[in-house]
Design goal:
The complex is a heterodimer of chains A (382) and B (496). Chain A has 382 residues and is an alpha/beta fold. Chain A contains eight helices and 17 strands. In chain B, helix 1 packs across helix 3, helix 2 crosses helix 3 and helix 5 crosses helix 15. In chain B, the strands form three sheets. Chain B has an eight-stranded mixed β-sheet with strand order 9-8-7-6-5-4-10-11. The chains are: A alpha/beta (382), B alpha/beta (496). The interface between A and B is large, with 65 and 66 residues.
């Protein structure tokens, strides 16, 4: 008798334990050591010596089945696994799915958590930031050219950010209007204090609004996405009953990291369907297929990774930046969690979130990892 | 679904909708039938109906699993009709983004060989014949300029594509001066490009001077070579019928002696080929590795196989079976020296193709929903007169533009629409997502045959191939998956 996981179920091994990913139901089953050994043996097509209750449980969960003979179980995939390269086939076009356009670098506020002060934010990319830099900004025409170019590379999602976008609102609207119809999903990032009814009216049916705030009760509208700024040790679980809230946790580097921070706990493990799973197998869950264009035209991996620059959209066309720096861009895109310090031995790695900008800033290593309280060597959450 | 069984009695099915093989069983099949018979039938009803024949728990398991399987989400392509999809604008976008991978210049239709299976011989009804036509530099230059102009336009859609230009014939070395002229022109005019150059030759004119020049200019050299002398000379002969093997080998040797890496063999088989002699020959260190091995085509109105008997076919099939046993036997895998061998090509890749390629929840792009046919423009073939074709394999009835007026996207669109209209069998084909056919399979002198006329036995052939592949995979899946370039990527999340 044999037992095999179904095509949609993958056993992913960590250093100590394994996990079963059900890619249809998007569920993840963490296994203990004994369960891991049993299912690992089954997946190697070894016969089962005696009927295990654990395997019956898996069958009841519709994760696998018993077979009389050795069978070949083909796993569900996205994309062919075969080697289809030949001499004349060149590289496929890069798939740029998400772009951040930081269209200005001006702001009259002095938020304590602004990138200007080098504050370490878990979702700084979803908020506005001002940076210490006086470079000449990219012109309006320059931004339009960038939008044309990212459309040619099939960009699906655009985040327009600053600075304070309302300081030159007509220019902001020019850019949004230009992008509209070219990119499916446009998001505009604003500070709560700048959000007026007129601005909301201007953006209606054109873009989603992400509002950055420290005080949830100052933003009541359910139709906005709220980026709530919270210090790491603040209590905020009560905020999480609204599903339009995302939490940007500010890491206080003067204090030891608390293992209760959501960026440290199981909460960072996300439901993973077949597309997300294979994306995470090949690419970094956040950096993959993403670029950010700074207000001065610098092309960087994400809005918060400002020390890595692939080129400048003011000096050269974006496609030329790809051509010239593809190896480096690809290195960031393909920095999947197999390549990251302790994630490589973690069984949850293809379902996990990871902010490379923050990790790099905290560990000073591009592949460093500090924001996780799971120890894959022991298979324990701390 | 296309169901099949392996000798161990395991039952599987190819689910063409999802693009995946799944294990199946009599119980599962009965549950599916019940679910199909009545829509919205409950689990309890099905159990009630089937419990006398099958175990209740099994029925329940399959009911749930089939419903779960049905939840697989496919990516949303637009719901445009074929007419809406195949606009000139859409085709142009597709070509600029995903096409232009290779420009093949037919520098002459002349050839000093008269290979018996040649696509341009009298054995083929719908293809051109040999002629003494040669491409001139004016045509070649226009083709090159046009190609680079399209690449420039396409750069913003695919900045990573590198220009690739090949010289083809006839025997292209009969027009060697033109090739040299083209190479110099490309290097002078398009300096900033990282260029890939290829040459497909019969090898007889590849003397020291030409070979050195090709090596110096970093060409990929593909030499047509069918195997050892007897095998090669059986079909590859000069106009006077004399065998060509000696001249070809004499020319290849200095290239191999220099350890030049970019030389490959292209071999052709027919039902009288001696596969084991070919395997031995192509494993030699002094013989270029076979990059492509193909069976003489039965397409294009081929009469070639009329000279063969049924016994020839049966003997050939027997050889293939023996080659397969030998290749997948343990000793072969241990002793083989070359990464790509002859048997690797003819039998080793079949299970890999069955198991790994096109296995995906990703559905074919709606612009070309059936078969493996490309969107013409993916590669460009230019004949001696400067007419564009989808590739060197399609006949002269389907030009898609010319070097003076450029690529004609309206013609490409028309060609695709005509082709798709003839693919009448495909919507109900149980293996359509694994189809490897393309234009030459269906082309006539003035259009395409319907797939219903050409594909009668494809499902049964695939079923046979799947059963053999799965029988192998049940015993040793590593053997099949080992050379896939994504192998490590697959294995790293499979429990090892």
């Amino acid at each position: 008798m044999y037992f095999r996981l179904n095509p949609e179920c993958y056993l992913i091994m960590g250093k100590m334990h394994g996990a079963i990913f059900d890619l249809i139901e998007t569920k993840l089953y963490a296994l203990n050591q004994q369960e891991t050994e049993i299912i690992k043996s089954c997946e190697k097509n070894n016969p089962i010596r005696e009927e295990e209750e654990f395997l019956n449980d898996l069958k009841r969960l519709r994760l696998g089945n018993f077979y009389q003979n050795r069978i070949y179980m083909q796993k569900l995939r996205v994309g062919s696994a075969a080697n289809e390269n030949d001499i004349v086939d060149s590289t496929d076009p890069p798939e740029l799915h998400r772009v951040f356009l930081e269209i200005n670098n001006s702001c009259n506020r002095n938020c304590w958590y602004c990138g200007y002060y080098g504050v370490k934010r878990s979702l700084g990319c979803m908020g506005c930031n001002k940076w210490k830099n006086d470079d000449e900004p990219l012109s309006l025409e320059g931004w339009k050219k960038v939008i044309d170019e990212i459309c040619c590379l099939d960009c699906r999602e655009l985040f327009i950010t600053g600075g304070d976008l309302t300081l030159a609102w007509d220019r902001t609207m020019d850019i949004i209007d230009y992008a509209r119809g070219k990119v499916n999903n446009i998001n505009v990032i604003l500070h709560q204090e700048n959000l007026s009814q007129n601005i909301k009216d201007d953006l209606a049916d054109k873009a989603n609004i992400i509002v950055q705030t420290e005080d949830l009760y100052k933003v009541e509208q359910e139709d906005l996405t709220i980026l709530l700024i919270k210090l790491g040790d603040e209590e905020f679980t009560s905020c999480l009953n609204r599903n339009n809230i995302i939490i940007d946790i500010i890491i206080d580097t003067d204090k030891p990291l608390s293992s209760n921070l959501p960026v440290m706990t199981k909460k960072k493990i996300l439901p993973t369907d077949v597309y997300k799973f294979f994306n995470n197998v090949e690419y970094h869950p956040c950096l993959g297929h993403t670029l950010s264009i700074c207000y001065n035209g610098d092309v960087i991996p994400c809005p918060m990774m400002r020390t890595h620059c692939f080129g400048n959209a003011k000096d050269e066309e974006l496609h030329y930046v790809f051509k010239k720096s593809w190896e480096r861009i690809s290195k960031f895109w393909r920095l999947n969690l197999d390549e990251i310090d302790k994630c490589t031995g973690c069984e949850f790695r293809y379902a996990c979130d990871d902010c490379r900008a923050l990790e790099e800033s905290l560990t000073k290593k591009l592949d460093g990892k500090i924001l996780c309280s799971y120890d894959p060597e022991k298979g324990e959450w701390q | 679904m296309l169901e099949f069984e392996t000798p161990t009695g395991n039952a599987y099915a190819w689910d063409n909708k999802v693009g995946q093989f799944i294990p199946t069983s009599l119980t599962m099949r009965s549950v599916i039938n019940e679910m199909r018979r009545k829509k919205l039938v409950s689990k309890e009803e099905i159990i009630k109906h089937l419990k006398e024949k099958f175990n209740e728990q099994e029925i329940s398991y399959y009911y749930d699993w089939i419903n779960k399987w049905g939840k697989i989400r496919h990516q949303n392509y637009s719901s445009q009709t074929t007419e809406e999809l195949h606009t000139e604008e859409n085709i142009k976008y597709f070509v600029l983004k995903r096409g232009l991978l290779h420009l093949s210049l037919c520098v002459t239709e002349d050839c000093n060989f008269r290979c018996k299976y040649c696509a341009y011989s009298d054995s083929y009804e719908y293809t051109r014949s040999h002629s003494n036509k040669y491409m001139d530099f004016a045509v070649a230059k226009k083709a090159i300029d046009c190609y680079f102009s399209l690449l420039n336009k396409g750069e913003r859609y695919n900045p990573l594509r590198k220009p690739s230009i090949g010289f083809y014939g006839g025997e292209p070395l009969l027009n060697f001066e033109l090739i040299k002229e083209c190479e110099a022109y490309i290097r002078d005019t398009y300096k900033d490009y990282e260029l890939i150059l290829t040459m497909t030759t019969n090898g007889s004119l590849l003397n020291k001077e030409k070979a050195n020049w090709l090596m110096e200019h970093d060409f990929f050299i593909a030499v047509s070579l069918d195997g050892p002398e007897e095998e090669h000379n059986r079909c590859r002969v000069y106009r006077n019928g004399k065998g060509t093997f000696g001249d070809v080998i004499k020319n290849i040797r200095p290239i191999m002696d220099k350890k030049y890496k970019k030389i490959y063999s292209i071999a052709v088989l027919d039902w009288r080929s001696d596969l084991f002699k070919q395997e031995e020959f192509f494993n030699r260190e002094d013989i270029p590795s076979p990059a492509r091995i193909s069976l003489v085509s039965e397409d294009g109105g081929s009469r070639y196989y009329k000279q063969f008997t049924k016994d020839d076919l049966l003997a050939f099939r027997e050889q293939l079976r023996a080659a397969r046993s030998y290749y997948f036997g343990g000793s072969y895998q241990q002793k083989r020296e070359k990464i790509t061998s002859f048997f690797e090509n003819i039998v080793g890749k079949i299970p890999e193709r069955d198991l790994l390629s096109t296995i995906s929840v990703l559905t074919p792009h709606p612009i070309m929903p059936f078969t493996s046919a490309c969107v013409p423009g993916r590669k460009l073939y230019v004949d001696v007169n400067g007419y564009y074709y989808a590739c060197e394999k399609v006949n002269g009835s389907f030009p898609i533009g010319n070097v003076t007026e450029g690529l004609n996207f309206a013609r490409i669109s028309k060609l695709i629409r005509e082709y798709i209209n003839c693919m009448d069998r495909c919507p109900e084909c149980k293996v359509s997502r694994k189809c490897s056919f393309c234009y030459p399979k269906f082309e006539t002198d003035n259009g395409f045959s319907c797939s219903s006329k050409k594909c009668e036995i494809i499902e049964s052939k695939m079923k046979e191939s799947f059963a053999e592949t799965f029988a192998l995979a049940e015993q040793n899946s590593e053997l099949i998956e080992k050379d896939s370039y994504k192998y490590k990527n697959i294995k790293k999340y499979c429990g090892d």
